[in-house]
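G., before I forget:
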Amino acid sequence: MEEKPKYLSNRTVIGQIRHHINHIIIHIVMCFSAVTCIYPLVWMLLTSLKTETEFQLNVLGLPINPQFSNYAKAFELGEMGKYFFNSFFNTIISCIFTILFTFIVGYILARFSFRGRNLIYMFFLSGMLIPIYALLVPIFIEFRQIKILDKWYTLLLPYIAFALPVGIFLVDSFVKALPIDLEEYSYIEGSTFTRTMFIIMMPICKPVLATIFILTFLRSWNEFPLALVLISENKYKTIPLGIRNFVGAYSTSYTFMMAALVMSIIPVVILYVFAGKQIMKGMIGGAIKG
Amino acid sequence: MERNKLRLKPRSGVIGLYMIPSIMLYSLCTIIPILIALYFSFFKWSGGSEMQYIGIGNYIKLVNDSLFWSSFKNNLIFIVLTGVGQIGLAILFTLFLMSPRLKLRETYKSILFFPNVLSALVVGYLWGIVYHSEYGLLNSLLQVLGIESLIQNWLGNINIVLYSLSMPRIWQAAGYYLLILLAAAQNISTEVLEVAEIDGATGLKKAIHVILPQMMGTLKIVLILCISANMKTFEQILVMTGGGPANQSMVVALYAYKTSILNMKLGYGSAMAIGILALSLVLIGVAQVIFGGITKWKKNQSI
């Protein structure tokens, strides 16, 4: 694919010229698309560094004197520290439990045949057909009835639950592809089920568990509708709700707003820089498995 | 027993114990809320202790609720607009990125995919300002380029509001479908491509007659993913227009949210949730039947 095959070299001159023109067009279109794609984000970053009057006078230009203080102000005015903490708390705890639960269920489903196995499989599979937006109101009513709205653990429940199916299927297909010799040997040696599962198998599953971590992290960090519906107390609000508060209160300070938006995506950007490849692979694999 | 099943297995009690937390948690967030909503959908209820059984009254109201159906219609229009944009661009970029001499392929992939990892809320707010009639990026650019005639209130014009709202979704998700299609395209054997080149198929011809037909299976998957993903658009519309102007950009999830949580009509909201669930399942079912092939494709993939 990389090298041009030899038999292509004896083209007619016109054919070659056309070929070159095609390539130039492809290059131009791709460059243009990439720039268009990234430009709104660059604009967001540039705007976040301007003063308000500067922005209103010159929407497109570069900031003359970068106002990094916008970030400090937005952080303080928007009580971002609290929201960041809540988002990190929800995200990290969701990730830990999702990894634990999906590993256990995926491993058991992959390795043992028992009564009800197919039923459990179908249970998680069919749940994926239920769109979350149709569940927003029902979950609100349920949580309201059993009085678990506005608790520190409220968001953890759906965040973990909705991350289960994809994770279970990822672990299931990963474990199925592993040879069983190691486990059989460990059982013959007298290792218990629990020990074999956690001490021997879990480390082997690290690659797939890393994928589940990444998917759950992005999902929980970015989640908004459930948080909107289930949390109304300020002290439990996550970043997306905090951003919404902030925009509501400072709807005309565009530069502060942009600074708040930029701050909110920093963890995701860091993750993307260091694990972009895995994110792409995981999101595509996860969705298709779903 | 299958080859990869262990011969030794723990007592079923142990297995049960390990599975129970996941099953309970998953039920708590899927089956149980649906059953609860189904129950309350037969009542007139605004959250207090007063509840009045009205049979299928809420469903009759739902069937006759013109705003609900116009919201659903907006959902469908939105799905078509975003779907055409996302998949169209994804196909175009896939064919371009398949071009053998293109440099920076990985860079393009990383850039085009990046908006996917942002939250829909951030995307909504960002594009809300991009569309701002006075200080927006779009109108400012149009002014600089000298096409002032196009300058307008992008989110305030009822004729174009759905188009305006679909742009951020296209911007955000096209890269995602691109990656799926590209993975499929790169699976086409090099031999097929080389034979095609020997036969004189290059550039566009090769793309249309060789690459695209080989990707039909994946294309169907992408279509179904695209329909279900665009059906759930909620937060972006909430923050960009709130369903306005004049409910012209209202979608079902947003309408259900407003009815149930802002107006506390919980009985009617429950019926609406059940209605949305049914409509979504029908929509996905119809898409599956029309585009078919998903199960066949899944079987070919691992597992």
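Residues 151 and 236 of chain A are 7 Å apart (CA to CA). The first helix of chain A runs from residue 13 to 47.

More on Monday.
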